[in-house]
Amino acid sequence: MGSSRAVLLPGTASDEVFVASVFARPLAEAGYSLVAPPSRGVAEHVDALDAAWAGRPLVVGGVSLGAHVAASWAVRHPERCAGVLVALPAWNGPAGGAPAALAAAASAAAVEAVGVDGALTGVDGWLGDELRRAWPRYGRRLADVLREAAGSVAPTVAELGRLGVPVGVAACTDDPVHPIETARTWVDALPRGVLRTTTLAELGADREVLGRAALDALREAGAGPTGP
């Protein structure tokens, strides 16, 4: 029997505050409790997933890089996973020239050259507000975390093909950094994957639309909470 806990990880240089804004209420309404670790970087994300394991299969997932790490963990530990929530997947396998990887590398260079405020010049709206809130929390680690993310490896198509648990994938149809084509590639590779979409404008107005989309997709893929 699976757990009703969902362990969700943030994207590159994001944090547990954003994860909670996206997933906490939708998960609660669906019967899950959110575990949003305050982890930073790939190794800490993996450690957080390992620490959350308590003998009953978990729902795991995250946003962008966090989703990559969680899906890779689920591939390695299928007995520990009841389902996966994937929001805004950014690439498969090595990052290569993926837009999100290029953006992270450029951001790292800009942070080192001109600081957080300078690096975010011209980044407006809800995204700018979010980055100005989250990035300072990384302190001196920010550029290193951005650069690590740019060189990280997501699950390959072949690895996704071995992930037999239900997977709900959510993506924005108009996001150039997390292309909808990448989300479709994930779902096409997954034995039990379902895609639901929203838009950046809808996400800006209400963060929860992304979490609800992922949960709706997970339900259709065949997963549900089984109680504490």
TrEMBL record:
InterPro entries, per the entry: AB_hydrolase_fold, Hydrolase_4
One family name in Pfam for this protein: Hydrolase_4
Keyword Hydrolase: yes
Gene3D superfamilies in the cross-refs: alpha/beta hydrolase (3.40.50.1820)
MF annotations from Gene Ontology: hydrolase activity
Transmembrane segments: none
Assigned keywords, A-Z: Hydrolase
Serine aminopeptidase S33 domain segment(s): 42-191
Organism: Saccharothrix yanglingensis
Signal peptide residue numbers: none
Protein name, UniProt field: Alpha/beta hydrolase
UniProt key word Hydrolase: yes
